[in-house]
Amino acid sequence: MQGVAELAVVGGGAAGLACAVTACRAGLDVVVLERTDRCGNKLAVTGGGKGNFTHVESPRAMAGRFDCDTRLIMPLLRKFPYQSIIQFFSSIGIEARSDDEGCVWPKGENAAGVRDALLRAIATAGGKVRTGCRVTGLKPGWRIQVGDDVLVARNVCLATGGASYPRTGSTGDGLALCRSLDLKTVEWFPALASLRTKDDLSGLAGVTQPRVEMTLLVAGSEPRTAAGHFIFAHAHVSGSSVLNLCGYAARGLAERRQVVLRVNWVPDRSASDLSAEFASGRAAHPKKQLGTFLGTFVARRLAVRLCAMAGVPSDRILTELSRAEQESIIRQLASTEFAIIGTEPMERATVTGGGVSLDEVDLKTMQARRFAGLYFAGEVLDVWAETGGYNLHFAWATGMAVAEAIASGKS
Ligand SMILES: Cc1cc2nc3c(=O)[nH]c(=O)nc-3n(C[C@H](O)[C@H](O)[C@H](O)COP(=O)(O)OP(=O)(O)OC[C@H]3O[C@@H](n4cnc5c(N)ncnc54)[C@H](O)[C@@H]3O)c2cc1C
Question: Is 285 exposed, middle or buried (0-12, 13-18, 19+ CB in 10 A)?
Fold first, then answer.
């Protein structure tokens, strides 16, 4: 390859494309280098193909969704609140709609359409996109190795993503590139993924609970709580509430600490509410079996399992239930504990934890502290967030921050 680009963006995912659009529009000469034959493969599958691309929330509230020192990312989130992301997408022809939970989606478009709009905006602004270009080396100067070719650029934005869903192209190359520059990195781990329990729960596969509250107990750490829906899969437990706790579980497991997930299946009822409901259930249906009665609170198969865990036969007739048995069942409804022994593999994790240590990055400009002209954007950084559009928000915000920093340095 010949010539010196003002900015080479390594990785044509969400962060890289947002960076390229902003940089081209600011008049920079930009080339995007994407290893697969199509940009934005992961972006196209986000939000079940619908692309939950940001969240209606104040910068302060949003900062709390990220797993990092919130003080570090507050300036970035203040500079790029959700309104600015919506405005950016409107400028490339993607309008937004938000749902009852505040998740923002493209209106009348899907996630692949968002990717296509970003690519059109790059082309319109004169940017170049080269697919099938896997970057294998990076040397100050900036000399970028692609196969036997070397591209020279004044600035590089490393936006190679994490290591989850590798079939989309995000195979974790960013860490090797950073390590070759002796940058501090944190090993990848699945941050948003289902959890593997010690007990075989395959008999419950397919059972879902629309709203539970749960607490993750990692020995030696503060308990973490989450609420949302809960799914029993074949070898895992999943659902939004579980995903949001996964990263903390993964870290605890990597440090060989004991990890327990405690689930409250009836978060809207206190123990005394439940006692009262048992009393009225007994009065109205004296011959009803315990398992059937519990089916009013949880799915029937789960009810039977909870009875077994509480040591009470599920066919016990309500009027024959002892006080101790009733209390044991009520405790089980409010705090079932599952020992956690692993997470889903990286291949199926939604988001990756780990990446370039934030110690190496000036988060105002996203530039490496020790290398002028080297910038980072998106999941390659050691930051991850809950589900709800925050991870894409971070990708857009960091990508735009890089472009703005380079453009302002140029003028
Ligand atoms: C199934 C799924 C659903 C998701 N849903 C949502 C959602 O609804 N909302 C949300 O906020 N987040 C969601 N996420 C997370 C979100 O997709 C990511 O956080 C986001 O895509 C990260 O953007 P990125 O640009 O940093 O990385 P990526 O999108 O992973 O892009 C990185 C790009 O770099 C390329 N690349 C890698 N190595 C090289 C190399 N050596 N040379 C050249 N190119 C390279 C890759 O091919 C890839 O195109 C979802 C993720 C998955 C897997």
Answer: middle
Is residue 234 very low, low, confident or very high in pLDDT (cuts 50, 70, 90)?
confident
**Intra-chain end-to-end CA distance of the chain, in Å:** 27
* pLDDT tens string 277-313: 999 999 999 999 999 999 999 999 999 999 999 999 9
For position 303, what pLDDT does the model report?
Answer: 96
d(CA 407, CA 130): 22
pLDDT at 411 over 70: no
Calculate the dihedral angle through the C-alpha atoms of 266, 269, 271, 277, rounding to the nearest 10 degrees. -100
Q: Which of 339, 341, 333 is nearest to 261 (CA)?
A: 339
Q: What domains lie within the chain, and their CATH numbers?
A: 4-189+348-410 (3.50.50.60), 194-344 (no CATH)
Three-point CA angle 320, 325, 327, nearest 5°: 125
pLDDT for position 410: 58
- pTM, rounded to two decimals: 0.93
* Distances, alpha carbon 31 to alpha carbons 38, 122, 133, 138, 324, in Å: 15, 10, 11, 15, 70
pLDDT in tens, 4-26: 899 999 999 999 999 999 999 99
Q: In terms of C-beta density within 10 A (0-12 exposed, 13-18 middle, 19 or more buried), how is residue 34 classed?
A: buried
**Is the per-residue pLDDT at 110 higher than 80?**
yes
CA dihedral (404, 406, 408, 411) in degrees, to 10, reads: -140
Ligand 1 pocket by C-beta < 6 Å: which residues?
Answer: 10-16, 33-36, 39, 41-43, 45-47, 52, 133-135, 159-161, 164-165, 169-170, 173, 350-351, 378-380, 389-392, 395
- Atom of ligand 1 at shortest distance to CA of 392? 11
Kindly state the helix (H) or strand (E) to which residue 300 belongs, with its residue range.
helix 300-310
CA angle 144, 145, 148 (to 5 degrees): 145
